[in-house]
C-alpha cells in the first residue's frame, strides 16, 4: 500500500498508536463488543469489587524481584514507576527491575523467550496477544484477578476481549483507545456548521462530510470532508458491523465479509471515498489535507491526538473531538489498546500474574495514569475522574474518548482465529476495499476473494 506523500506528519501518530493500540500486522488499530462479539463464558462469575485502597499488606513473604519489559518511552517509564510504587504499598516484599526493550517490544520479548531470558512481565499490544499465546509464552491471569478481587464489571468487555482466549484472560490493558472524530472547528465555522455533539448519528456525520467537501470544475476534490482511515482494522470492523451483519462465525471460525449486511456496512464508508468526499488511503496526494487545513474531520484515536493537534497549531486552526457517529443499525465503536502480560515460564509466575492483574484495580490503574499523564483509563469507575483529562487535552471534549464505552468492539478475528489468519484480515479486506474504490471489481466479489484467503489460512 502506498503511503501518502503528504502524510509524513502522520508517521509519528501511527507509531504512537502502535505502542498504545495496534493491529496484528503493525498498522494502527482497536476490542470486543458488549454484544454478540462477547468471548465471556455464559457462566462466568465476576470477581468481587475491590478498589485496592483497603487491601491488607502482605506480610511474611520472601523478597521477590520482578523484571518488567516495556518500550523505552519516558512517559511509559514514569507510568510504570507510579504503578510500582502503588503496588508496593500492599506488596512491600516485591521490587522491580524495569527493562527497556528495543524495537517492537513484544517481538523483542519473543526473541528473548527463545533464549530463556524473557522478563517476568512484558508489554504487548492487542494484535500480538494471540501470537504469544500460541507460542505458550503467556500465563493466565484469572487466579490473579480472583486473588486481588478485581471487579470485571468495571472493565468494558470490549477492552478485555483482546486477552480473552479459550475461556481465560492473558492480558491486562493499560489504556482505553476508542475511535472518535477529530474536527477542524475553524473550517466548520467558516462553512457555517456547528460543532457536532457526542451521540450524533451516521446521517448527521455524512451530511457534515458532504457539506464540507469542495471540488473544482474538473471534479477533483480540493477540500475533503473526512479521513476515514478505512485501510485500518479498527475502522474496517466498525463499519462491517454497522448494518447489523456478522463477519465471523464463532462456531466454524470462518469469516464472511461478503455477507450482504457486512458488504452494506463497508459500502457506506467506501462510497464516501469513491465519490470524493473522503480522502483515499490508497492514493498518494501532493499534500496532506488535514495539515493544510483543507479537511473537516478525521477518524482516529486518543494516542494520535498530539500529532493532529500539532498540525492544527502549525497551520493556525482550532480543533476539537467528538464521538464516533452511531452507525445506521448497530452502534459499534472500533478500539484498541496495549497492556501487560505475565511470562508463563517465570520463576516467580504467581507474583508476576498478581502484579499484572493489579493494573485492573482502581488504585494501581490511577497511579499508572497519573504518573504517565497520557492514558485514558480502562476502568469505568475512573473515566469520570478529572486526573486524566487535564493532562491529555485540557479544554477539549474529553468525553468523546470514553463515550459509550460498552459499545466498543474488539477484533474478535485477532482473538478467535489462528494468529496467522487473524493477521491477514486487515490486509485482505483493505485490498478488497481498494479494488472496489478503484472500480476494479464489485465490493461483493472482492470480499468473497478476501474471505477465501482468510479462511484458507485458518484451515491450514
UniProtKB/TrEMBL annotation:
Domain of life: Bacteria
Gene3D superfamilies per the UniProt record, alphabetical: Periplasmic binding protein-like II (3.40.190.10)
A matching Pfam family: SBP_bac_1
Keywords: Cell membrane, Lipoprotein, Membrane, Palmitate, Signal
InterPro entries, per the entry: Bact_solute-bd_prot1, SBP
Protein's name according to its UniProt entry: Sugar ABC transporter substrate-binding protein
Region (Disordered): 28-59
Native organism: Paenibacillus nasutitermitis
Endpoints of the signal sequence: 1-20
Amino acid at each position: 500500500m502506498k503511503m501518502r506523500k503528504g502524510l509524513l506528519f502522520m508517521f509519528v501518530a501511527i507509531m504512537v498508536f502502535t505502542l498504545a493500540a495496534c493491529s496484528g500486522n503493525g498498522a494502527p488499530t482497536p476490542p470486543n463488543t458488549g454484544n454478540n462479539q462477547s468471548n465471556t463464558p455464559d457462566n462466568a462469575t465476576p470477581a468481587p469489587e475491590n478498589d485496592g485502597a483497603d487491601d491488607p499488606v502482605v506480610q511474611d513473604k520472601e523478597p521477590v524481584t520482578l523484571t518488567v519489559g516495556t518500550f523505552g518511552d519516558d512517559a511509559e517509564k514514569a507510568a510504570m514507576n507510579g504503578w510500582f510504587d502503588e503496588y508496593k504499598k500492599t506488596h512491600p516484599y516485591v521490587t522491580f527491575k524495569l527493562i527497556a526493550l528495543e524495537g517492537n517490544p513484544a517481538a523483542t520479548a519473543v526473541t528473548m523467550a527463545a533464549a530463556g531470558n524473557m522478563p517476568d512481565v512484558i508489554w504487548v499490544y492487542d494484535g500480538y496477544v494471540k501470537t504469544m499465546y500460541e507460542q505458550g509464552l503467556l500465563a493466565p491471569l484469572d487466579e490473579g484477578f480472583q486473588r486481588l478481587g478485581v471487579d470485571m464489571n468495571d472493565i468494558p468487555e470490549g477492552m478485555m476481549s483482546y486477552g480473552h482466549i479459550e475461556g481465560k484472560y492473558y492480558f491486562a490493558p493499560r489504556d482505553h483507545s476508542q475511535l472518535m472524530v477529530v474536527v477542524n472547528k475553524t473550517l466548520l465555522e467558516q462553512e457555517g456548521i456547528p460543532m457536532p455533539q457526542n451521540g450524533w448519528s451516521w446521517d448527521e456525520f455524512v451530511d457534515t462530510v458532504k457539506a464540507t467537501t469542495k471540488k473544482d470544475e474538473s471534479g477533483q476534490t480540493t477540500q475533503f470532508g473526512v479521513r476515514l482511515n478505512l485501510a485500518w482494522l479498527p475502522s474496517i470492523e466498525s463499519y462491517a458491523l454497522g448494518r447489523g451483519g456478522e463477519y465471523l462465525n464463532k462456531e466454524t471460525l470462518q469469516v464472511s465479509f461478503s455477507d450482504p449486511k457486512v458488504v452494506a456496512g463497508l459500502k457506506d464508508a467506501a462510497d464516501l471515498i469513491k465519490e470524493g468526499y473522503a480522502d483515499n488511503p490508497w492514493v498518494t496526494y501532493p499534500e496532506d489535507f488535514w495539515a493544510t487545513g483543507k479537511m473537516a474531520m478525521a477518524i482516529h484515536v486518543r494516542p494520535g491526538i498530539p500529532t493532529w493537534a500539532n498540525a492544527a497549531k502549525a497551520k493556525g486552526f482550532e480543533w476539537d473531538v467528538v464521538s464516533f457517529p452511531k452507525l445506521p443499525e448497530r452502534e459499534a465503536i472500533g478500539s484498541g489498546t496495549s497492556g501487560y502480560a505475565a511470562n508463563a515460564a517465570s520463576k516467580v509466575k504467581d507474583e508476576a500474574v498478581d502484579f499484572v492483574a493489579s493494573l485492573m484495580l482502581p488504585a494501581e490503574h490511577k497511579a499508572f495514569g497519573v504518573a504517565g499523564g497520557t492514558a485514558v483509563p480502562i476502568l469505568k469507575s475512573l473515566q469520570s475522574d478529572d486526573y486524566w483529562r487535564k493532562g491529555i487535552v485540557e479544554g477539549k471534549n474529553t468525553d468523546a474518548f470514553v463515550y459509550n464505552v460498552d459499545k466498543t468492539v474488539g477484533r474478535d478475528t485477532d482473538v478467535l482465529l489462528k494468529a496467522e489468519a487473524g493477521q491477514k484480515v486487515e490486509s485482505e479486506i483493505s485490498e478488497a476495499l481498494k479494488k472496489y474504490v478503484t472500480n476494479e471489481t464489485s465490493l461483493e466479489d472482492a470480499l468473497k476473494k478476501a474471505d477465501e484467503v482468510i479462511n484458507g489460512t485458518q484451515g491450514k
